[in-house]
């Protein structure tokens, strides 16, 4: 091989090596870029390697990667917003938990006050004991209620991001329409007792005011301890009825103070199971008191003998208008006495019907879910329930005339269609007597 041929061959090989080296460099850059794109955000890889894209990546792939980078950037922004919202929610829950932990600790500290420091009243019967218990709890809830002017000031200072929550029912006025039915078409009428109740909602319930309740909390604990030793065997039907209504309502109020306010209807049901009290040596929760004593559900065997000692013998349907679970759909809270419980239940029934049932100008009838649930205690169907409602209202009630107009002016089918059942609302709310 001549010298010229040798140099030419060498030059060709060098050119091929350079070309292959260039291809290798491009492949290595592409490999690094793709690996980086897999393990790092496209937003970063796109901005840092943009200058090398045109030489190693086809145009269509460049467009696709650019779109993916934009999408990923939006995802990152949304993830940051979600994390911020989670942090805010966590801080709010932590603050609320601290409030109720403080409330529970303060309650436990306060109930250790020696009995002699608490003024003792003459309590010699189970009924007087239950009445004093519910009165003391009402007093506590009154003191934990922030006055309206303080709440208004706090609402006006709420940050803009949380202003939407002001539209919740917790901020709605109570005086003219505590059951939220009168504003359906602007109808106004006198609803008596309910109009004068004090409304305690989640937003007006202030655990930080617990220091105002020292004597009341100590008295509640003393009364609860005394319940363990009572005997109901000698009590009359009326006395048992009033006693168990008061104990039912008191057990739930006491559970709110112990465990805080439930956030959902499911947690409310859990709280009803925790709302227990020891009566005569037997621990009963609110659900047991309602269904096995006051509503007298059927039981067999040994359990029936145990409950007969505490039970009423036969159910009283009007307890529907007296049992208060501390929510928007519950009737107003009252104190019931053994001497006059029948008349007190009658008043509670009439005033609940007047406050919770509304008939619009277009003859649309709004009825609470609570009444519809227990319809079979009073009637066979919706039409006969309306007839029963008419029979229970006093002659002077404007609602009575409206019900009669609906009954007389509609067929049974059209009457059923005109009835709308208002949904049950488990959000915390008490209507307290003044």
From TrEMBL:
<dbReference type="InterPro" id="IPR006869">
    <property type="entry name" value="DUF547"/>
</dbReference>
<protein>
    <submittedName>
        <fullName>LOW QUALITY PROTEIN: uncharacterized protein LOC120268297</fullName>
    </submittedName>
</protein>
<dbReference type="Pfam" id="PF04784">
    <property type="entry name" value="DUF547"/>
</dbReference>
<feature type="coiled-coil region">
    <location>
        <begin position="61"/>
        <end position="88"/>
    </location>
</feature>
<feature type="domain" description="Ternary complex factor MIP1 leucine-zipper">
    <location>
        <begin position="6"/>
        <end position="92"/>
    </location>
</feature>
<dbReference type="Pfam" id="PF14389">
    <property type="entry name" value="Lzipper-MIP1"/>
</dbReference>
<feature type="domain" description="DUF547">
    <location>
        <begin position="236"/>
        <end position="353"/>
    </location>
</feature>
<keyword id="KW-0175">Coiled coil</keyword>
<dbReference type="InterPro" id="IPR025757">
    <property type="entry name" value="MIP1_Leuzipper"/>
</dbReference>
């Amino acid at each position: 091989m001549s010298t010229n041929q040798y140099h030419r061959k060498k030059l060709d090989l060098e050119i091929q090596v350079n070309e292959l080296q260039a291809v290798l460099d491009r492949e290595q850059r592409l490999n690094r870029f793709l690996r980086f794109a897999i393990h790092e955000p496209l937003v970063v890889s796109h901005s840092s390697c943009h200058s090398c894209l045109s030489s190693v990546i086809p145009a269509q792939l460049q467009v696709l990667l650019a779109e993916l980078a934009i999408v990923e950037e939006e995802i990152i922004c949304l993830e940051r917003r979600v994390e911020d919202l989670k942090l805010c929610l966590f801080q709010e829950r932590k603050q609320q938990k601290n409030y109720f932990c403080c409330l529970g600790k303060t309650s436990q500290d306060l109930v250790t006050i020696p009995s002699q420091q608490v003024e003792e009243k003459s309590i010699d019967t189970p009924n007087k004991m239950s009445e004093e218990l519910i009165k003391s709890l009402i007093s506590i809830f009154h003191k934990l209620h922030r006055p309206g002017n303080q709440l208004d000031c706090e609402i006006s200072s709420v940050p803009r991001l949380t202003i939407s929550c002001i539209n919740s029912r917790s901020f709605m006025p109570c005086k003219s329409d505590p059951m939220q039915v009168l504003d359906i078409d602007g109808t106004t009428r006198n609803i008596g007792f309910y109009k004068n109740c004090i409304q305690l909602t989640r937003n007006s319930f202030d655990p930080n005011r617990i220091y105002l309740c020292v004597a009341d909390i100590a008295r509640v604990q003393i009364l609860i301890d005394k319940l363990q030793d009572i005997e109901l065997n000698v009590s009359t039907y009326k006395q048992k009825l009033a006693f168990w209504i008061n104990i039912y309502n008191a057990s739930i109020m006491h559970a709110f103070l112990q465990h805080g306010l439930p956030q959902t209807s499911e947690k409310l049901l859990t709280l009803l199971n925790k709302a227990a009290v020891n009566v005569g040596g037997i621990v009963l929760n609110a659900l047991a008191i309602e269904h096995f004593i006051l509503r007298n559900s059927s039981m067999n065997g040994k359990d029936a003998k145990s409950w007969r000692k505490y039970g009423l013998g036969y159910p009283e349907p009007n307890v529907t208008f007296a049992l208060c679970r501390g929510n928007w759909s519950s009737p107003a809270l009252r104190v019931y006495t053994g001497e006059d419980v029948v008349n007190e239940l009658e008043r509670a029934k009439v005033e609940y019907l007047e406050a919770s049932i509304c008939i619009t100008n277009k003859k649309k009838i709004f009825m609470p879910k609570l009444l519809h649930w227990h319809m079979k205690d009073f009637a066979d169907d919706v039409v006969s329930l309306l007839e029963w409602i008419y029979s229970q209202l006093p002659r002077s009630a404007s609602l009575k005339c409206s019900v009669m107009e609906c009954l007389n002016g509609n067929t049974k089918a059209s009457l059923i269609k005109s009835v709308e059942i208002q949904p049950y609302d488990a959000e915390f709310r008490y209507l307290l007597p003044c």
